[in-house]
UniProtKB/TrEMBL annotation:
Catalysed reactions, as listed in the record: 5-O-(1-carboxyvinyl)-3-phosphoshikimate = chorismate + phosphate
CC cofactor note: Reduced FMN (FMNH(2)).
Keywords: Amino-acid biosynthesis, Aromatic amino acid biosynthesis, Lyase
Gene from which this protein is expressed: LOC105137092
Any single biological process term in GO: amino acid biosynthetic process
Name of the protein in its database record: Chorismate synthase
Family statement: Belongs to the chorismate synthase family.
Organism this protein belongs to: Populus euphratica
Pathway the protein contributes to: Metabolic intermediate biosynthesis; chorismate biosynthesis; chorismate from D-erythrose 4-phosphate and phosphoenolpyruvate: step 7/7
Amino acid sequence: MASSTLTSKSFLGSSRIDGASVSSDLRKLSISSVQISFCSRIPKKLQINAAGSTFGTNFRVTTFGESHGGGVGCIIDGCPPRIPLSEADMQFDLDRRRPGQSRITTPRKETDTCKISSGVSEGLTTGTPIHVFVPNTDQRGFDYSEMSVAYRPSHADATYDMKYGVRSVQGGGRSSARETIGRVAAGGVAKKILKLYAGTEILAYVSQVHKVVLPEGVVDHDTLTLDQMESNIVRCPDPEYAEKMIAAIDAVRVKGDSVGGVVTCIVRNAPRGLGSPVFDKLEAELAKAAMSLPATKGFEFGSGFPGTLLTGSEHNDEFYTDKHGRIRTRTNRSGGIQGGISNGEIINMRIAFKPTSTIGKKQHTVTRDKKETDLIARGRHDPCVVPRAVPMVEAMVALVLMDQLMAQYSQCYLFPINSELQEPLIMPRLEAANASV
């Protein structure tokens, strides 16, 4: 119990207030000591400040749940009202993310069927928080008995203990990729609104698995389609390289090992003007969003690291005016963003994912009581995370763009725009909202 003693004294030693004599009772009070006690209901060492599960400012998403708990999901706050929305708008991407899709993903069997329980009435968003829930149905907590005492190398087991002093052992709890279900569900909402509002398309694909690298220029970002990406189990739009990538995953999968890779993401028809100078640059927001995903280890934007090998004259994107009178760039090494603000060109980025930490090969580690030991991890895990990471990347990019679109409208389009320099944002056409997205 903490206590504090406050002693009141007469102001500057005076015993008069506004020329009047202070009563004897008041004078007694002015020199008395007042004992005030504060009692905390919860011992300090048991108080926990939970953080890190909410993303966004205007379009805010909070994810919840753990890998082997009752279920996972999200709460979406700030979604505009009167947008047609149903579970089907989220389920498509959830199906792309779910486990058990093929031999190169984890064999865990989950339908990942989502349920909206608030924020939607008669098929339209109400502007109030949207609650989305997906139950866990295929749990095997016993697979993690060894990992309850021994830390998996390069996994979050040890650092969660270091931070919280306690952790959910089964499946890694919040550190599991199962947490991303909430992100993908919310991303489905953001993608629909962006498509309705501005025709914005967000497409990601696998461009590298281990040492199999899709050459630059093989994929035409102007014509890339979802069907091309979904035409094979590794989600690479080029059939020849897709087969090479699948073979690379198969080679380590049968050995109980894993490999990493790279996901490339593009954005077509992004509104101009998204992002802010200095600390809130659009590429900085995208980098944070992408790097918040499990297993991420690197982020490249536009020309990325290879761009450092060019001179300024080689790297600069020269401007020109197209036949519609719009300012464009002849090249796009800037990746669709200059000065932290979108310029209307295709936004492109690449996200590197490490090999899956949990593998079936013997590894040296330590136990929670700091004794060295060997561990052969059990459980069901992806031999390569990148095929299932594709919809996760799309979702995080969509959440950033949705948040930035709302910020841009509220700051720069609340009053009449400078039509000589600014393009009007397309207002939502709700009468066309029932069109397939």
